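Changelog note: in this version the structure field was regenerated for every chain. One regenerated record is shown below for reference.
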Amino acid sequence: KLQALGERMEGVVLSSSVYQIPSKPKMKRCARRITPFCQASLVVCILATPSGEAFTTRHVYRQGRLRDQSTTRLCVFNVEPEESILMEQTSTKEILDGIIDDCLRTSGRRPIMIQFEPSSKAIWSHYRGTVFAETWKSCVQGILWAASTYLWLNGQPRLQTALAEFSSLYMQLLSVTTFTLTFFVNQSYTIWRTCLQTCRTLQGRMNDLIMSIAGFSQRVDEKPPGSSIFSENAKRMLTITARYIRLFNILSYASLTRSHRPLLTPQGMRRMVARGLMTAKERTLLIEAQIPATQRHNAVLMWILRLVIEGRKAGLIDGGFGFEQILLTKIQEIRAQGNSMESVLKGRMPFAYAHFVQILVDAVVWMYPFVAFTRGSSLFLTLMGSGLMTLCYQGLFDLAKRFLDPFHNENFWRGDDPLIVDTLIAETNSGSMRWMYCLDEMPISYRSISKGMVDEFLLPNEGFTREEAEEEEARKRAEEEEKELSAEERNERLFEAIETAEEEFEETKRILKAPPGSDFISDDQDNRARGDGDESGEEDDMFDEFLEAAEDELELDRRRRAEV
C-alpha cells in the first residue's frame, strides 16, 4: 500500500512504519522521538501540511544517520490531507474486503478443523497443528536448562549427596502433576467441545427457522398446472429473511472472534453497506440503537421476528398461532445459543486452577535435571529426558490452553488448528438459501392434489427391475434414433452430449472427494489455494472403482460418438 502511495507522490516508499507529523514546527521534535525506534528500516514521515509549503528534511535525515550510520534513513513526503485520508481508506479497505470475501461465500474453503487419517503413518507425517509445532521452543529451552544445570552440578560433588533423597520427592510430585494435568486437559477439551456444539446448534436452529418460514410461505400454481412456485412477494420476503440470517450470523461471530471484529468498526459497517451485506438505512439503525457494538446481532434477530410476523399479517405466510409459537421458540433458542457462547468463553476456567497447573508443570520440567544428576544419568540421557518431559507435560498443558481458545482470539499459540469461523459462516450462508431453493418449485401443486391428478407420481414400492429399466432405456434410444435430424443438428447434439458427460464426470469426482457428511463440496482450486489437498492416503476401494468405471464410461462414450 505504501509503495502505491509513493508512486502517486513520485517517490519510493519501502517501510513497515508510518508516522504522521501534524505540522512543520513539530518536525524536529517528532524526529527526535521516532528515530530511536529506527532499526535497519526506512521510516516514512508523512507531513499533513498544505501542498507547496516549504520545509527541510536535513534535520530529520541527520537524526536518522546519528542513530544508525549504515541502514537507518528517514524520508519525508509532503502530502495533502486528502492523501492521508486516502491512505487510511486503502489500509482498512483491503483488510475488510478480505474478511467480507470469506463472509460472502456459500462453501467453505476448508473443513472446520484439520482432517486426518487415523493411521500411524499419516499422523506422524503431519507437523502443522501438532504438539511439535507448539512446544519445540519450550523443548529447546528445557534442553539448554538441563545442560547448564548438569554442568554446574557436575562441578559440585557435595550436592550429589545432599540431593540423594530428592528423587523420591520428585516422584510424588510427578504423580500429583500427572493426575492434575490430565484432568485439566479433560476439562479444557470439554469447553472446546461445548463451543463447537454451540456453533453447530446455533447453525441448526437458524436452518430450522428459515426451513419453517419457507415451508409455510405462500405459493401459486404454475400454468399449465402441475407444479407450484413461491409467489413473488413471498419469495422477496424469504430473500430478505435469509439475508438477515446471514447478517445476524456474521455480526454474531464478529462479536465473539478477533478475526472478524473489524466488521463492527465504523469502517467495517460502511464497507458492509458497500459490499451489499446491509442497506444504508439498516446500518444507521444499528449504529443509532442504544446497544453496544458487540450486541448488534440481537437487533437483527428482532428484525427477523417482526418481519415474519408482518409477513403473516400480509398473507404471505400460512399457518395460525401455533406457527407463531414455533417461530418464537426457534428465535429464543437462537438467542440463547448465540449469547451462551460469550458466557462459555468468558468463564472458561478459573485463573487459580490454571495458575496451579502451570506451577506443577514448570516444577516437574525444571527439576528433572537435578533428579537425573542424582541418579547418575549421563549428559546425553539427561538432555533427552528433559526434552521428552517438556514435550509431554508442557505439550499437554499447551494443548489444554489451546482448547480454552477455540477461535484463536489470543496470541499465545500459533493458531494452526482453530475452529474455522469462515467455514461456519459459509455453511450458514448456504443453509439460509438452501430451503428456499429446495421448494423453489414443488412437483405436486395444491390443485393437482385437490383434483387427484397425481397418477404419474404413483411409483411401485419395490421399484423397477433391471430388465424393465433397460427396456425403458432401449425404447428411449429407439425413439431418439427415429427422429429425422439433419447432419448439423445431429453433430450439435453429439457435442452437447459429450460436454454433458464431461461435466458429469467432473461433478462425480468432486462429490466422491467431499468429506463424509459435509455441507459443501469444495472445488480443487480452493483446496490448492489453501494447501488443503488430500493427505489421507488412498481412498476407499469402492470409491476408486466407481471413479475408474465413470472414467471408462466417459472414454467409451467419446469414442462411440466420435465414430457416429
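Spot check on this record: Confidence is low (pLDDT under 50) at residues 5-90, 524-540. Residues 328 and 435 are 19 Å apart (CA to CA).
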